[in-house]
Amino acid sequence: MIPATEVTTMNITMDVPRTTDAARKLRADLVERAAALRPLLSGNADPTDRERGVPAENIDALAEAGLLALMRPARYGGLQTDHRTLLEVGREVGRACGSTAWVTSLLNANAWFVGLFPAQAQDDVWAHTPHARVAGVVTPSGTARVVEGGYRVSGRWAPASGCAHADWAVLGVNRPDAEGTPDAVGIVLAPMSELTIEDTWFVTGMRGTASNTLVGEDLFVPAHRFHSVPDAIEGRYATPFTDEALYRAPFVPTAALVLTGPQLGLAAAAVDLLVERAPQRALTLTSYTSQAEAPTVQLAAAHAASLADSARLHAYRAAADIDEAARAGVFPDYDARARMRMDAGMAAVHAREAVRIVCSAQGASSFGESNPLQRIWRDIETGSRHAVLNPEVAAEIYGKSLFGIRGTVSAMV
């Protein structure tokens, strides 16, 4: 395993986002590192679920492999990869543990959000602590009140995935003083040391993400740590480093797509389990001594594998659209962004359906506590229902856009 310090000094240059061959080699290397961690992460998957938190051993191993630095700017020693790389790493980690993959993806995604802020805000987070991790909730469930030099911020933010492992938080806020302007809704940056965590994440699936509630009361946030969300949605970012392709990607499609990587991994894990176990088991109440010989199970395997592949194809197409536009310096128009959000929603739906088919093919035993399928099923049933991924909302947005109707459903496009 290559330590993160060697990763950033030996393998990474600022040209990686622009050099397709270099980006592909880096991606393959990072996926190999994630695959090497699967025995550890898989071995810890049950305790992660049972104890409602990703263990420090997992986080330390991911950090050492450079897998928590994917979206951090290279200026601060990060890998500054692309969205396809984040998806593939999330998928590989998700094959071992859904909660660990979710935390991996969200810590990276929130680092991407920080990369949109002014240089001074980025320095606050990383200049003196380049390995700082960032959690966050962009839903505007807090309030920012204008004061001299910045804002006083109060609120409760949930679910804050990975907050137990974070040094900073991205927090969504409303600004009553700016109603009717692009600054009415924003995101701010606050150190975790100024927030408290309430243990509220009592759920059936993705239990190990510890997506608890962040609480802040009258926090002072300097003005440079505020970013307008309407500006971000339209691609008007505050970062001065406009040559960095990664931080030109569209805001909402990125926020949706980053959630799909873990689900691709959960679907792949379910198919793997079916293929591995079916030859060793009889099909109850039939003459088949091996499920692998039964057409019903063969068809289930084919449909589940194809759906898992379809989920990847949708997610990877959206990633390609995002990454290629960012490299070209072109901000995707509304209709393109609507399709990207639709792709993310369909990836989640297809991945979830793949897992359902596997569970049905394996019968009631899928839900035995000792069977990892029940954890995979619980994780994907929960993760695939994140609000940003809502496939019905995504379909309405996309369907309307096909008829030239725009901006009537949600600002989050």
UniProtKB/TrEMBL annotation:
Kindly give the InterPro entries that the UniProt entry links to this protein.
Acyl-CoA_DH_C, Acyl-CoA_Oxase/DH_mid-dom_sf, AcylCo_DH-like_C, AcylCoA_DH/ox_N, AcylCoA_DH/ox_N_sf, AcylCoA_DH/oxidase_NM_dom_sf
Q: Name one Pfam family in it.
A: Acyl-CoA_dh_2
Q: Which UniProt keywords apply?
A: Oxidoreductase
Answer yes or no on keyword Oxidoreductase: yes
Q: Where is each Acyl-CoA dehydrogenase C-terminal domain found?
A: 258-391
- Asked whether the keyword Signal is assigned, the reply is no
In alphabetical order, the GO MF annotations are: acyl-CoA dehydrogenase activity; flavin adenine dinucleotide binding
Which positions fall inside the Acyl-CoA dehydrogenase/oxidase N-terminal domain?
44-109
Q: Which PANTHER family match?
A: ACYL-COA DEHYDROGENASE (PTHR43884), ISOVALERYL-COA DEHYDROGENASE, MITOCHONDRIAL-RELATED (PTHR43884:SF12)
> How is this protein named in the record?
Acyl-CoA dehydrogenase type 2 domain-containingprotein
- Organism of origin is Streptomyces iranensis
